[in-house]
Write a structure and sequence with these properties.
By secondary structure, the protein is mainly α. It folds into 2 domains: 2-160, no CATH class; 162-191, no CATH class. Helices cover 57% and strands 0% of the residues. The protein has helices at residues 2-8, 14-21, 24-37, 74-88, 101-121, 128-148, 154-160, 166-174, 180-185. The longest helix has 21 residues, at 101-121. The radius of gyration is 20 Å and the shape is globular. The two termini are 33 Å apart. Residues 182-191 have low confidence and may be disordered.
Length: 191
Amino acid sequence: MLRYLSQSKRIKDPGMRIRSISSIPESILQMLGVAHCQIEFSCAPSSFPDLDYKRFFDGRNEFRLPEGQKKMDLTDLLVVVPTILANRWPIDLPVQKICNPDYVMPLHQTIVARIRNPAAHTYADLTEKDAMLITDTCFSWLDTAAVLAGYASGEAFLASIRVPDVDQISSFLFNSEYSVSNAFGDGSTVA
């Protein structure tokens, strides 16, 4: 996701940039929920920890925890994940941004109402400021995920990954000794 987000910065039109990454905030929250909150987003638990979830909610109505066995939506994740993270991790870890209600609450209107829903359902007039907000939020949350996984930052995580070559990818995909370079280069047989 970090590489994709970095590449998305090349898109000049803010509306197109936002549409290209509009599902990433929800994906990051799903990942954080599974990895650090023991929440399976596709099937909400029947009970949640007894915490003050409303402090992370900036909606018109009262926040209600999702029903058990139902898929959690972006609004649910944007409340539940920061609430649980704020309760579980020491304040000195660099996850404070996602654990800060003053940071998270305005995102409900910006990401859910203004950016995600219009990007999913209609064409909207989105600004460079909107594009920067969603991009910066995604980078911040990915840094949080990297820190919680023991890395200094998202960039440090990327640096630790060895990128597979074409032969390794083809071997993985075809579960064999298939080699693209051999199949097209020296006439050897494909297993």
